[in-house]
Write a structure and sequence with these properties.
Helix content is 48%, strand content 20%. The termini are far apart. The protein is an alpha+beta fold and 120 residues long. A four-stranded antiparallel β-sheet has the order 3-2-1-4, with helices on both faces. The protein is globular. It has five helices and four strands. Helix 1 runs antiparallel to helix 5. The chain has one domain. A hairpin with a 2-residue loop joins strand 1 and strand 2.
Amino acid sequence: MPITSIQKKLESTLLHNEAMSDDLFNENLINLKDKFIKSMNQDNEDVIFALDEHNNQIAMLLIENNGNYYSNAEAKSKLKEYWKSNCENNLKKLIPYMAEQLKAGEIAVTGFTVQATLNA
């Protein structure tokens, strides 16, 4: 699939609420959960999320450092909780890089730390 098609698919899935593939999640991403947890711990990250694409289908896995994990729509919802009003902008910046990874046959993986907020 051309990179522009992958990028458009990511945009429609992540920014415009197109459905994600439970089959792709169950066939690929869930099997890599332990690898992602190890990577998250090695990098001292609080959250990691991964996206896979196959046959114009997208799947998403989000894992928290406490071991909780979420698939597809729940994963995207949890990401929005973490990134709040910055979610759309962050995704717009990441989508081109994720599309490149997916085009290369890789899983697109992003980890981040959660900043504590002070209540005034």
